[in-house]
Specification:
By secondary structure, the protein is of the alpha/beta class. The protein is built from 21 helices and 15 strands.
Length: 520
């Protein structure tokens, strides 16, 4: 090795040494970002990625040179032979330029001509007992890494491994403790991850972790399509009840005639058609968690019976003479403003307070636009297998349009939008290995708003502003105009804006509008 190479390795070692001292106890992703920064000074590459996972799948903790949606993807080792080769080797693995193994980042590099296959690729792993860290380096130029001496690369791997092993020791102990309490069914719940790195999602994840360990009932509130069911599953998975049943029921789909039987069960002969005993959802969830989705749709009669169970734990099946005691934690969800429903007499105040011991609010997608690239990557990776494609990617212009849309249908609408676009692209490019999405199907009304905003920016040559500030200005203007058109009627304005009334009021408050004045 020459003196320049030795200098780079020394600087890497010193950087990671300072990193270990400065970041001890900090989260894994923050460490990965700092490690990535240090590696970028040691190896020149079009893309560097740090992945984390187990023998089944890996996700990217940090990367540079890859499209924004790459971080949201999950790489299954059975479908990624290059990553599998790196995972199975204790040495640094370098692939020849003419390797016929598909590269996981084909179509994802930000470098010029990024749609070309990756030609230079190498990587190594760091075994972390219960998990694994992979570091990969990629370039479009075939001979990019040939000038690096073998001893240089081995020393670099040793330095990174030593640092990572120290930093991930606490993570290893935590994972071991968690794994000892998991059943196979609960492991499948864990795979349903909450995708998002925005401030509001970090806050939500912290709230979930905090309340999950308690026995408090939880009320999850949020717009339709935000992922309230997924939040409920994470509350259960992270609780002490995670090896017990997680039972869910959609209250909106329960006719009054059978709702009581569904919740509490019935005895044979209790009513016409009751030809055998039936176990209710509360009894089925005994020892575990019962998720009441759309709890705001329950009738007042059923609300009073539900309140009795929450107060005493006593369940009486329809037609039964005896009472059964159950130990059930209730997690409820609704897209309604239950405080407003209580005020209007549509929901019992005592039941509301029983359910909302610890309320969680799932933010709408319009408040976490920075998470869209991650979500898009997550959905595209799932669609890759569904469409039987080597890779499915979205160009920057299409992704930009997604980030300028207000998403009244939230994450569910985004998923459906991406799925439609991918299916159309597959139909148009059925012979291509890498499917590229260029066209996005967004409602004409919102297209027009985007075009008007772009036109104003072009004509007026306004100075650049932060996206969040610009979005808030547009939201304020739309709310005020809608209110004026409808004589300051919140319900009518909410219908025009395709929002729930309570969510519109909450958004107006967050934007600093004088809600009380508008209501008067």
């Amino acid at each position: 090795m020459n003196s320049l190479a030795l200098s780079k390795l020394l600087e890497l070692s010193m950087s990671l040494s300072r990193l270990s001292l400065a970041q001890e106890g900090r989260e894994v992703k923050q460490y990965a970002k700092s490690l990535l920064s240090a590696l970028s000074q040691s190896v020149t590459a079009d893309a560097i990625a740090i992945l984390y996972g187990d023998q089944h799948a890996l996700t990217i903790l940090a990367c540079n040179g890859l499209s924004a949606d790459a971080v949201g993807r999950q790489f299954l080792l059975t479908e990624q032979p290059r990553l599998m080769s790196i995972f199975e080797s204790d040495e640094l693995v370098s692939f020849p330029a003419n390797s016929d193994l598909p590269d996981p980042y084909d179509g994802l590099l930000l470098a010029e001509e990024s749609r070309l296959p990756v030609h230079a690729c190498m990587g190594f792993k760091v075994a972390l007992q219960s998990s694994t860290l992979l570091v990969t380096f990629d370039c479009l130029k075939p001979d990019s890494f040939e000038h690096l001496p073998e001893v240089y690369l081995k020393t670099l791997q040793a330095i990174v491994s030593s640092s990572a092993l120290r930093m991930f020791e606490a993570e290893r102990l935590y994972e071991q403790a968690r794994a000892s309490t998991l059943t196979q069914s609960q492991k499948s719940v864990k795979k349903q991850i909450l995708v998002g790195e925005s401030a509001v999602m970090h806050s939500l994840k912290s709230e979930i972790e905090l309340v999950a360990g308690s026995e408090f009932n939880v009320l999850i509130q949020g717009d339709t399509g935000t992922g309230k069911e997924l939040v409920a599953k994470h509350v259960h998975f992270n609780s002490q009840r995670n090896d017990k049943p997680f039972i869910q029921i959609n209250c909106a789909a329960l006719p009054d005639s059978i709702a009581e039987s569904e919740l509490f069960g019935h005895k044979k002969g209790a009513f016409t058609g009751a030809d055998k005993d039936r176990l209710g959802k509360f009894a089925a969830a005994d020892g575990g968690t019962l998720f009441l989705d759309e709890v705001g749709e329950l009738s007042l009669t059923l609300q009073s019976k539900l309140l009795r169970v929450l107060q005493s734990g006593e369940v009486q099946a329809v037609g039964a003479d005896h009472i059964h005691i159950v130990d059930v934690r209730v997690v409820a969800a609704t897209n309604r403003d239950l405080k407003e429903e209580v005020r209007r007499g549509k929901f019992r105040a005592d039941l509301y307070h029983r359910l909302s011991v610890y309320p969680l609010f799932v933010p709408p997608l319009s408040e976490r636009l920075d998470d869209i690239p991650l979500l898009v990557g997550f959905f595209l990776e799932q669609l890759r297998g569904t469409l039987n494609a080597k890779q499915v990617v979205m160009d920057r212009q299409a992704l930009s349009r997604l980030m300028h849309y207000d998403w009244p249908g939230n994450v569910r609408e985004l998923e459906h939008c991406v799925s439609r676009a991918a299916l159309k692209a597959k139909h148009q490019q059925w012979q291509a290995n890498i499917i590229e999405i260029h066209d996005i199907d967004i409602a004409p009304k919102h297209h027009q708003q985007i075009q008007q905003a772009e036109c104003m920016t072009t004509q007026e040559k306004a100075p650049p502003v932060a996206m969040k500030f610009a979005v808030e200005l547009l939201q304020k203007d739309m709310i005020v105009n809608a209110m004026e058109r409808h004589g300051f009627n919140w319900s009518a304005a909410a219908r025009e804006l395709e929002m729930d009334r309570a969510n519109l009021v909450r958004l107006a408050k967050r934007l600093g509008l004088d809600v009380k004045k508008q209501m008067s």
